[in-house]
Amino acid sequence: MGVTVGQVLGSYRIDAHLGRGGMGEVFAAYDARLDRTVALKVLLLEVADPECLERFEREARAIAALDHPNIVTLFSIEAAAGVRFLTMEYVDGKTLSEWIPKGGLDLERFFATAVPLTDAVAAAHGRGIVHRDLKPGNVMLNRDGRLKVLDFGLAKLVAPTDERWSLAGARTATLESDAGVVVGTVGYMAPEQVRGEAADQRSDVFALGVVLYELAVGKRPFEAESTPEVLSAILRDSPPPVDEVRDELPHHLARIIRRCLEKDPARRYPSAREVCSELVDLARELETRSVLAAHAPRAAATGAAGRRRWGIAAAALAAALAVAWIAFEVGGRGSNSPVAGAGGTIRSLAVLPFDNLMGDPDQDYFVDGMHEALITDLSKIGNLRVISRTSAMRYRDSTKSLPEIARELAVDALIEGSVLRADGQVRITAQLIDGQADEHLWADSYDRELEDVLALLSEVAQAIAREIEVTVTPGQRLRLTTTQTVDPQAQELYWRGQHYFNQGGVDGFREALGFHRQAVERDADFAAGWAGLAGSYLVHGFFNLAPAAEMIPKARAAARRAIELDESQAPAHSTLGYIALFFDWDWPTARRELELAIELDPTDAMALHAYADYLAVVGDCNGSVDQVRLGRRYDPMGGWANAFLVGHLTYCGRYQEAIQEGREAVRLGVETPEIRDSVGLALWQLGRHEEALTEWREASGANDAALQELARGYAEGGPRGGMLARAEGLAAAAESSPVNPFWVAAYYAAAEQADAAFLWLDEAFQQRTPQLLHLTIHPRFDPIRADPRFADLLRRIGIPDAAGARRGTAEATDRRPTG
Known about the structure:
Elements: E1 8-9, E2 12-21, E3 24-31, E4 36-43, H1 50-64, E5 74-80, E6 83-89, E7 93-95, H2 96-99, H3 107-126, E8 139-142, E9 147-149, E10 172-177, E11 180-185, H4 191-194, H5 201-217, H6 227-236, H7 242-245, H8 251-260, H9 272-294, H10 304-307, H11 314-331, E12 348-351, E13 355-356, H12 364-379, E14 385-386, H13 389-393, H14 402-409, E15 413-422, E16 425-434, E17 440-449, H15 453-467, H16 474-481, H17 488-503, H18 505-522, H19 527-542, H20 548-565, H21 570-583, H22 587-600, H23 605-617, H24 621-634, H25 639-651, H26 655-667, H27 673-685, H28 689-700, H29 705-733, H30 741-750, H31 754-767, H32 788-797, H33 805-814
Parallel strand pairs: 12-14, 12-15, 13-15
Antiparallel strand pairs: 1-2, 2-3, 3-4, 4-6, 5-6, 7-8, 8-9, 10-11, 15-16, 16-17
Helix pairs in contact: 3-5, 3-9, 3-11, 5-8, 8-9, 9-11, 12-15, 12-17, 17-18, 17-19, 18-19, 19-20, 19-21, 20-21, 21-22, 21-23, 22-23, 23-24, 23-25, 24-25, 25-26, 25-27, 26-27, 27-28, 29-30, 30-31, 31-32
């Protein structure tokens, strides 16, 4: 039975036809009882089936219970003149599809639209209700600009039979499957809906991602000439990120939308609540930009035009977000409540790289400096395992989901954050996320003047410790709360130095040294600056970038100055430990300083590696493996941490383990020449020489002249011939350029040329070559260990009675079953 304009159904007069959908037709109607206009949706006749009708009314009552300012209210389910219909709130306005401009919305209007939309969907998800047909056509903006979501959950209430899924049919269709009946719109359907599987909250999240994409850039992510091509694109294609389509959009917004559009539901946000949380956090951060610009001193009015590049007018954005933010806060967890992950207590976490909200890549050093400093502060909490900066930075531009990252790093939780600074102020926003459930647990923002940035980071670390209820000892609390006031320019110079230091390489270390010098020249009482300078001097001496006789005394003096200013400077203690171990051959001092450095910063894989070398020197080779394994635990994706582990396993004669660990690291994408080189050495020691050569080719390249030299020697004279050819090649090169005598000796020893080996070892002794400490454990020296000159050299170095340490360890290990 059709309904016409002018017809009366009970107390409702049909005034206008508004549209038609899969559930029936929609009219504007006058409600004579309450003297108001309502929307009246006439339902399909199939709902008259008694069983379907009972289910329909039960679920409609649940939807009617939704009370949200951005969801159209369902008033009643009624019948009159043989017609079954719904009465709903009437919205006088435009659909979102009519309102989105070409090219997308500016950021102010984007957030003013996106946050209420996601909050409305989140409210329904909180009641177990799924929309199933989210699209701009089902979202209205009334004349006052308020957003209203239509048809919430109604797609589930009917099972229309007069429309069938047709690849050649209309873009709005009904898909019937064994999983049930899903109503959706082509272009907004999630992959599981396209496949005919049941829809859930994550299907709504996918549709939200499509709508957010359209709001941001003015077009849908999946567009094609025909319905089959659209469906294929949904199942197969990854659209370009919105910040590539519009480069002025924040990168973090692109990450949010990208995660909504994951093909696998398990990789999306679990519900719209998490999407809303992310958008609100980002909106608040971007609002801060304009707040800082808007509240700059009037005396700086000449710079106003430059500051307007921040983009968003604070007052307008604040007003637009007020209702959604209040609803979010009321519906969320109070900020003072402790949190725990899905797996229980949080005892390990990783701080992912912070977003740079300044929009200026030249400010990356500042953002990375704050990121590293927060990791350092959190590492002061003894009961919390914090992943080191090196591993965390691998995920700067990763497309992996948060649970995937948490699994790879073996952590309970993740910290995401962003940094913004303007006009002498800094804001850091951090959020804590359950690594297993991908659940947002806590978030907050912190503002300080630039000169108080270290206190700001300490505050963030303490807040995180409180939220996860980790035990902080009085000593740890003191180290967290004791912060130094630093000249802001000195702090920036130091962070620039760290930025280059972390890049490594000759150029990186030289740039770092220059900035670290400038930092302490700017502020002579800057402890971290002196520690950074000590580290720069050390690497110059250690890697022969400058004469060690000049660099090492400077490194020692800088480290001592840092400790004089702040005895908790772990890097300074680590530097003193390195100097005592590798240059002074002062074992007690090395042990004391390295153990203290590790206590202050357990994530420092370099300090753990030096301590492992100390243990090897004193004869505890397996103990050295335990230390580098611990370093890898804090830095699981770090190239050096994995290289140290594979290297020490090889040095201790645990060849099969070394090969397995090295190949697993390569499989995970943690590949360095050092890892390949150690695997090659392990294979060579096991007699698998061709495999070793292959591994070395992977490390240095097939065209490497030294490797070709070794391969030719091996082809002509077997394993000894290969080692001899390499030794003679290095010896010849030493006539025209500096060569580390330790490695020349190692190859001569492996070739069983003892006289030549000891000649070069004596040269290494005279130069106090740092690598000389590996003499007791490096397998290439096995053929000459029984020579009396070997024991005499150990005596001159002052190494404890460890001449047989490696041999004994290797023999014991050889008897151990290997996998």
